[in-house]
Amino acid sequence: MNWLVTGGCGFIGRALIADLLAEGDQSIRVLDNLSTGTREDLAVVAPFVELDNTANFHDWSQPLALKVGDILDPAAIAEAIIGADVVIHLAANTGVPQSVADPVKDCHTNVLGVVNMLEACRAAGEPPRFVMASSGAPLGVQAPPLHEEMAPHPASPYGASKLAGEGYCSAYYHCYGVETVTLRFGNVYGEGSGHKGSVVAKFIKEAMSGQRLEIYGDGSQTRDFIYIADLILAIRSAALTPGIGGETFQIATAAETTVAEMTEQLIKAMRSEGMHVPDVYHGPIRQGDVARNYSDTTKARQRLAWTPQVSLHDGLRRTVRYFLDTYYHSTASKE
Predict the structure, then answer these.
(1) By C-alpha distance, which of 16, 62, 84 is closest to 230?
(2) Most exposed: 94, 144, 277, 295, by fewest CB within 10 Å?
């Protein structure tokens, strides 16, 4: 298959690419503006060819190719999408704080960017399947567990923009026959998350640099933490399972964990790996955050034949080891 992965230089994109390349007989093209991930990050996964404006975009003979471009640039998208069988749309403005700080930028990227991608799919002779990364943010303030039939009540501009993207996916399926699938990711963590600002990666990086760990509020807010390898299996299932056009799926673990509980488990994982763990303190509640968030994943189990396999305990241990191995490798290479 020919896979176009937008935002493929990022955390989730690189994990997906590594998994596809390990299987073999897959051709992958990345469209990325390099605002977060870098060429160097992608090169760690595998050697790649960089495509410029003179490239033959009908040629998918290379296992991995990079097209530097933005999802706000229809011309770049039109080139990158030629010949794709499936589009995994990961490129986005991610996170609540960024959207609160600049809601207009968040809207441009997460709404117009999705429309640009869907228009390119519609214009293709045979539209590729379009799998969009979303989150629980469109549902916003709810009594969990979150499920697909809930009426959305976004509590942040990020949630609103992701909701709009989900709406356009549904519209393009029903109006134009583009096979869209929306995946609402839980809180993703794991190896390769060095650039992420989400709580697991943030706390590990802060602990390694000797900083105190700040929990927003009293730590009673809950999240559904999903390990990266489990998420990749869900993405692949969404790309390949027939008969799910226009559908939305909650992709998480169906386990409600408070931030305080996760922090306690993470500290145990750090100590078991010989790390010095600094103090934890409580700061103010963050604007736009929801108090409770975990998902009912029944639909994904039934329709995608997918269930998560890695426990939070094991996933945190693996993630800590990754950061330690990466840190010491990087330090040694500089000496």
Answers:
(1) 16
(2) 277
Determine how many CB atoms are found less than 10 A away from the CB of residue 125.
Answer: 6
Summarised one tens digit per residue, pLDDT across range 79-91 is 999 999 999 999 9
Kindly name the residue from 158, 172, 173, 322 that is annotated as catalytic. Answer: 158
Mention every residue, 6+ apart, whose C-beta is less than 8 A from residue 246. Answer: 169, 170, 173, 174, 179, 180, 181
Is 0.90 topped by the overall pTM? yes
CA quadruple 99, 104, 105, 107: dihedral, nearest 10: 80
Q: Which residue, among 18, 37, 230, 254, has the nearest Cα to 136 in the 3D structure?
A: 254
189-232 pLDDT, tens digit per residue, is 999 998 888 899 999 999 999 999 999 999 999 999 999 999 99
295 within 8 A of 252, measured Cβ to Cβ? yes
Domain assignments of the chain as residue spans, ordered by start:
2-188+227-252+289-308
What is the fold, at CATH topology level, of the domain defined by 2-188+227-252+289-308?
A: Rossmann fold (3.40.50)
What six digits make up the tokens of 82?
């030629």
Four-point Cα dihedral 141, 143, 147, 153, nearest 10: -20
Residue type, 72: L
CA atoms of 256 and 223, how far apart (whole Å): 6
**Rg of the chain in Å (alpha carbons):** 19
- CA distance linking residue 172 with residue 78, whole number of Å: 17
CA atoms within 13 A on the CB side of 155: 17
Active site (annotated) includes residue 158 = yes
| Nearest CA-CA partner of 226 in 118, 92, 136, 95 | 136
Cβ-contact 281, 214 below 8 angstroms: yes
The helix (run of H) or strand (run of E) holding residue 300 is: helix 298-303
